[in-house]
Amino acid sequence: MSEVKKFLYVNRKAPYGSIYALESLEVVLIGAAFDQDVTLAFLDDGVYQLVKGKNTEAIGMKNFSPTYSALGDYDVTKIYVEKESLEARGLTLGDLMDLKYEDEDDDWAEKDSIRVVSASEMADIMDTQDIVLSF
């Protein structure tokens, strides 16, 4: 049996104005459906993808943000947000969606999926991955 590879999807673009954020989310869900070991990272303007309460009516685009809440159902539970990127944009963890998953190893306890990490911690996370895809 082949070893499961660890995939890191790096999100650096704002959620609207380009196709990158939506494409990344779709690829993540497809990979997770095929039992990939998926990790997500949000850096630079990518942190805006996780900001709660978006209203896209004025730009005439469908708001795909609610789809992030399904990540836990696909066992995507490792979501890292770079602290410096949040701070540079005047954001905090409280500004982000409340993404959760149920931990089957802990009697199905509900746990947070998002972890805020420093740039150096993010570099360490990237070093542990087999495949890094940047969007």
Question: Helicity level, as a percent range?
Answer: 10-25%
Distance between the termini: 30 Å
**Relative strand content:** 15-25%
CATH class: Alpha Beta
Q: For this structure, what is the CATH homologous superfamily?
A: DsrEFH-like
Per DSSP, the total helix count is 3
Summarize the helix and strand pattern as letters: EHEEHEEEHE
How many domains comprise the coordinates? 1
CATH architecture: 3-Layer(aba) Sandwich
User: What's the story with the biggest beta sheet?
Assistant: 5 strands, parallel
The chain-level mean pLDDT equals 93
Outline type: globular
Strand order of the largest sheet: 6-3-2-1-7
Please describe the structure with a list of short key phrases separated by commas or semicolons.
7 strands; alpha/beta; single chain; 135 residues; Hypothetical Protein Ychn, Chain: A; globular; 5-stranded parallel sheet; 3 helices; two-stranded antiparallel sheet
3D structure, described in words:
This protein is of the alpha/beta class and 135 residues long. The chain contains three helices and seven strands. The chain has a single domain (6-134), classed as Hypothetical Protein Ychn, Chain: A. The protein starts with 5 loop residues before the first strand and ends with a strand.
Topology at a glance:
Elements: E1 6-11, H1 20-33, E2 37-42, E3 78-82, H2 83-88, E4 100-103, E5 109-112, E6 114-117, H3 119-127, E7 131-134
Parallel strand pairs: 1-2, 1-7, 2-3, 3-6
Antiparallel strand pairs: 4-5
